[in-house]
Amino acid sequence: MIDKIFKTYDIRGKYPKEINEAAVFDVAKALGRHFTSKNKAKKIVLGYDARLSSPSLYSSLIKGLRMSVLNSEIILAGLMTTPMLYFLVNHFKASGGIMVTASHNPKDYNGLKVVGGKAVPLSGGEIYKIISNF
Questions:
Q1: In terms of CB atoms within 10 Å, which end of the chain has fewer, N or C?
Q2: Highest mean pLDDT among 1-10, 32-41, 98-107
Q3: Residue 113's CATH number
Q4: Options 54, 56, 103, 132, the catalytic residue
Q5: Which of 36, 30, 96 is nearest to 64 (CA)?
Q6: Which residues contact 104 (CB under 8 A, 6 or more apart)?
Q7: pTM above 0.70?
């Protein structure tokens, strides 16, 4: 069921049936290790949108990252827009960024937009490979 949430440009699905706190926690652990193992910056920027389910998923994202990264800075940017995430990843020269959002999808959806260094987007397929190798 979890592989169903990995889309072309991001991770998203209906909340809480397809994407929920447990799925976000697992994805965060794998992404944390991915971002900090290959990059000297060792900074990860996190944000979330105004959806009702976003604060809870953001909390799971933070917990998952904190379990998997050591000696890294997690920048908690809070409530913001996706373009702000891109700006902050570049501003802080971070190795990556994760935004809790389902973009233009209806309110019963949520998800994650993930970018690497220089705010280069990671596709759902790339993220799935990272998770699979975790």
A1: N
A2: 98-107
A3: 3.40.120.10
A4: 103
A5: 30
A6: none
A7: yes
Looking at residues 107-123, what average pLDDT do you find? 96
Token code pair at residue 30: 């794998």
Whole-number percent of the chain with pLDDT over 70? 96
d(CA 110, CA 12): 6
- Per the DSSP assignment, residues forming a β-bridge with 79 are 48
Encoded tokens for 115 = 């970018």
Is 123 an active-site residue? Answer: no
Domain range for 33 is: 2-132
Q: Give me the sheet containing 96-100, strands edge to edge.
A: 11-14, 109-116, 96-100, 43-48, 73-79
The total domain count for the chain is 1
